[in-house]
Amino acid sequence: MEGIMDQRSKPSRSRRNERGLGRRTADTSPLQSVRDDERSHIARELHDDLGQLLATLRVDLNLLERQPALPRAAATQVHSMDQLLLSAISSLRRIASNLRPRALDDGSLYFALQAMCLDFARRNPLRCELDVLESELCFGDHFSTTVFRIVQESLTNVARHAKARRVRVAVRRNGASLRICVEDDGVGLTDEDLRKPHSLGLIGMRERVQGLQGEMSIRGQGGTRITIVLPLPEPHNEKAPRGAL
Q1: I need a surface site. Which of 12, 107, 124, 213 has the fewest CB within 10 A?
Q2: Do the strands 127-132 and 166-174 form a parallel or antiparallel pair, or are they unpaired?
Q3: What is the mean pLDDT of residues 98-112?
Q4: Which residues partner with 169 through β-bridges?
């Protein structure tokens, strides 16, 4: 983990490209909190409205399936419909969770990160290690959401492009700042990668970092290592956690 920030003292084409990413996001970071609020609203609507409708429909199907006069062929079809409905409910929960993890609404960045890394390892053929302490992750809503999204976008980049077998996520306090490090043992990032359209994932991360006056560095040799340092928020500058979905 040592020596990550030393890359700042070595100008390179990668560093110049990173500065380019920063210029492209300078005018968009104020919109990030608006996007997060909209995500929360959509997630809440999905859960409270559409989710409840699907759950009610499933109850009705189960009642129909128990009718003694129901022909066997119809019962088989109803059972098949119930399984499809169950899959739809599962997909809806996953989408709502990606938009706004319920653990964040309960005020727990620690459990939200744990759940995300477990789900990431389940869906991808690689090992995901998480280095966090629950006692260090007690923040308000805005800061917690920013940290969660940074880690989420980092893992998405790993899954799409790294061809890695292992990824390690460390989120630790360091004095008056929070240090986030996501590193993998994949193919690494080249200067060309930073100029491609998929660098939009990095742009989204940089938007969030700049919105909190933080710093972000990328090392693309021998795997990719993304390091972010965020100043810890003042208690009175943080919003209270929202209510659960």
Answers
A1: 213
A2: parallel
A3: 78
A4: 130, 182
